[in-house]
Structure formats: structure tokens, C-alpha cells
């Protein structure tokens, strides 16, 4: 599993998650070294958009988020996944499927994924993020059901 973060200004490096991601690991390996400094660089209006995965909502992570004064988007339980990062994962998946020959080992795969991640045009990321308002409007119009996104 890899983890990555995007914004209209920045993207994190991909982080290879080995084993199970717990709340403590999410805080120590991802939030603290990768996310907080990027959010602070963006400014006081930056918002962390994670999801309701158990590591993201652990007591340790909630305390850390409050202590670091990170603005976090609230997600209702059982909400549709509207996170723009899903489009980045789809793009990476398409690139993996088109790559011939496939990477020979995990190290090559991780290196190649990082190159592809860095190669996704910023305009693609901005378009996905800027579509959030319309995504939410369509989601509400469809009572949380399927949308074109």
C-alpha cells in the first residue's frame, strides 16, 4: 500500500506503508512528517481531507490534529467517497496497467510509482480538486447515490 497527498499547490512523496496502518503509525509516519508541514505551507485555510478509515479517526490522531491546529474536513458516517485522491489512484492504476514490461520487484514498482505520481500534471490535480463543489451538489441531488464522478 502507498499513501499520498495532493493539493492545488503541493503533492507529497508517496509513502510505502508496510504492514497494517494504525492510528499511531498514521500520525507518526504520515501526518507528522508529510502532511502538517505541507498544510502549514499552504496557509491557515488549508483543510485536511482524509476519510473515516479507523487509523484516521483514532483517539491519538484526533488529539494530534487538535494539538497541531490542523483544519480537518468532517465526513458523515457511510458517506460516499468523494475524495479527489481517488482520481489520482485511478490515474496511477491506468499508468501501471499500460506499463510494459511490468516492474520486476517491489523496489522497482515503488520507484516507478513515484515517477508516475510526480508526472501527473498539476492541471489534472487542480481540475479534480476544483470539481469538489460540483461533486457535492451532484451527490446531494442523487441522495448520496451514483454520480458521474
UniProtKB/TrEMBL annotation:
<dbReference type="Pfam" id="PF13358">
    <property type="entry name" value="DDE_3"/>
</dbReference>
<dbReference type="InterPro" id="IPR038717">
    <property type="entry name" value="Tc1-like_DDE_dom"/>
</dbReference>
<feature type="domain" description="Tc1-like transposase DDE">
    <location>
        <begin position="28"/>
        <end position="100"/>
    </location>
</feature>
<dbReference type="InterPro" id="IPR036397">
    <property type="entry name" value="RNaseH_sf"/>
</dbReference>
<protein>
    <recommendedName>
        <fullName>Tc1-like transposase DDE domain-containing protein</fullName>
    </recommendedName>
</protein>
<dbReference type="GO" id="GO:0003676">
    <property type="term" value="F:nucleic acid binding"/>
</dbReference>
Amino acid at each position: 500500500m502507498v499513501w499520498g497527498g495532493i493539493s492545488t499547490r503541493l503533492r507529497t512523496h508517496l509513502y510505502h506503508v508496510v504492514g497494517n496502518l494504525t492510528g499511531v503509525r498514521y500520525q507518526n509516519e504520515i501526518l507528522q512528517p508529510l502532511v502538517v508541514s505541507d498544510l502549514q505551507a499552504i496557509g491557515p485555510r488549508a483543510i485536511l481531507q482524509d476519510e473515516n478509515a479507523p487509523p484516521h479517526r483514532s483517539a491519538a490522531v484526533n488529539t494530534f490534529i487538535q494539538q497541531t491546529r490542523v483544519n480537518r474536513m468532517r465526513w458523515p458516517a457511510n458517506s460516499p467517497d468523494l475524495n479527489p485522491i481517488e482520481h489520482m489512484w485511478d490515474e496511477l492504476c491506468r499508468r501501471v496497467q499500460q506499463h510494459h514490461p511490468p516492474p520486476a520487484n517491489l523496489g522497482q514498482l515503488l520507484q516507478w510509482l513515484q515517477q508516475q505520481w510526480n508526472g501527473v500534471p498539476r492541471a489534472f490535480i487542480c481540475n479534480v480538486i476544483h470539481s469538489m463543489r460540483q461533486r457535492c451538489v451532484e451527490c446531494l441531488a442523487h441522495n448520496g447515490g451514483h454520480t458521474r464522478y
